[in-house]
Write a structure and sequence with these properties.
The chain has 253 residues and is of the alpha+beta class. The chain is built from five helices and twelve strands. The strands form two sheets. The protein has an eight-stranded mixed sheet, with helices on both faces. A hairpin with a 2-residue loop joins β7 and β8. It is globular. It starts with 16 loop residues before the first helix and ends in a 28-residue tail after the last strand.
Length: 253
Amino acid sequence: MMFSRRREGGRHARDNSQRRARAEQHNEPPAGDEPAVPSVGPFDVSEAPDGVQRLDLGSLKIPAIDGVEVRVQANPDGAVQQVVLVHGENALQLGVFAAPRSEGIWEEVRAEIRKSLFDDGVAAEEIDGEYGVELRARVRTPEGLTDLRFVGIDGPRWMVRGVYQGGAAVDPAGAGPLVECLHGLVVDRGQEAKPVREPLPLRLPKELAAQAQEGAAGAQEPVVEVDDAPPPVNGSGPSQPPRRKPSPRPRRT
């Protein structure tokens, strides 16, 4: 398939038609010529709805949704390497990256993911999804063949990348509460300059970082583990499928 290199504008750089379409899907009236606050996220922190309980990981704030477990791979000092949301047999791995002020980067990142998969002998299919063009692929893991679906959302100077695993990778309608998490996700980009596609910093809340160091995370808190595998960089690369079973206690690397 031929692949266009035309850049797609970020969500902040697009006209209001896409915001209107999203509002209409949720039975909301269009907002005229003024930029509308999106009806579903990921939200920039400047647009985020109030009154929602969220796990604050710094650059990402994850809404608390019934039935969704948040699994966080972190260093002993609390720096987060990977965030995975799990519901039943489905998982959603989240990453957030710096982007230019005036344009989105998902199209270029998507091309690089596709090339990386191709170089590994894996074919990837482009499909239309809620947020635009997505990638779907089937990769081989030690547990067998695994379906993955890559989703990218461009925002104001940031890009969120999500990787679905399980039935939700094949049937988006089966993602259930994981989609609710993405709809309620909040990105706090900060004001400092960062290289384009640099991962935005994620950190455990102080109390969870202390529990991780002690190896005594409570049963109701996100599961914290330390992983030797490096996280995906620069928003590209297929990464490893999310690990489904965390280590019983943190270990130092």
